[in-house]
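Structure in, sequence out. Go:
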């Protein structure tokens, strides 16, 4: 079954909405200047503590310096770390040595995505395939994403522009290990419980 991560938690209400809908994982954005969903590490830790048992919590960041990533983990010891912005195997190796626990490395979709995913795979527990730097709300080439899923010997998480209206088609086309949504389930204030529920229902319908 395709797993679902709801990213960009900003409040206790967001955590409750995603958890009640059946999300497998929740993402908390830190150290990501310009993101409207950025939290202080202490806020992320506090909100993550509200997640029910068996729901994974991920610290999501654009920070790439190994020492700073280790410090973020110390301030917000969530279940896993998701890093955007690494460029090569040297950086990925340095991060892998500096941090502990599960590590998800993000790869921007594009012509070099498959090569970069292969470079990152030895250092990551999963690869997240997103549009650009992440959080753009734009979809990308799902056919290319499907080829990456087949080529990479690690779980691949599909992100980028997913919504309740298109996620079933995305899952059928790509067959990812998991999907990741943030802006696609936003409401007027934070996550929309109705949109989150519909998103999860569409994914579960595909199975």
């Amino acid at each position: 079954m395709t797993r679902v991560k709801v990213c960009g938690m900003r409040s206790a209400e967001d955590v409750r909405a995603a958890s009640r809908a059946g999300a497998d994982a929740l993402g908390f954005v830190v150290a990501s200047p310009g993101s409207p969903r950025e939290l202080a590490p202490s806020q992320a830790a506090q909100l993550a503590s509200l997640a029910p048992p068996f729901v994974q919590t991920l610290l999501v960041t654009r920070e790439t310096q190994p020492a700073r990533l280790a410090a973020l983990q110390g301030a917000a010891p969530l279940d896993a770390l998701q890093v955007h912005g690494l460029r090569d195997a040297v950086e990925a190796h340095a991060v892998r040595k500096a941090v502990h626990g599960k590590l998800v490395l993000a790869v921007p979709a594009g012509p070099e995505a498959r090569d970069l995913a292969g470079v990152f795979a030895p250092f990551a527990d999963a690869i997240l395939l997103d549009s650009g730097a992440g959080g753009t709300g734009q979809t990308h080439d799902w056919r290319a994403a499907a080829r990456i899923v087949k080529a990479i010997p690690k779980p691949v998480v599909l992100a980028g522009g997913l919504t309740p209206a298109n996620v079933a088609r995305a899952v059928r086309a790509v067959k990812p290990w998991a999907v990741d949504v943030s802006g696609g389930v936003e409401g007027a204030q934070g996550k929309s419980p109705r949109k989150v529920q519909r998103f999860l229902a569409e994914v579960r319908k595909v199975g």
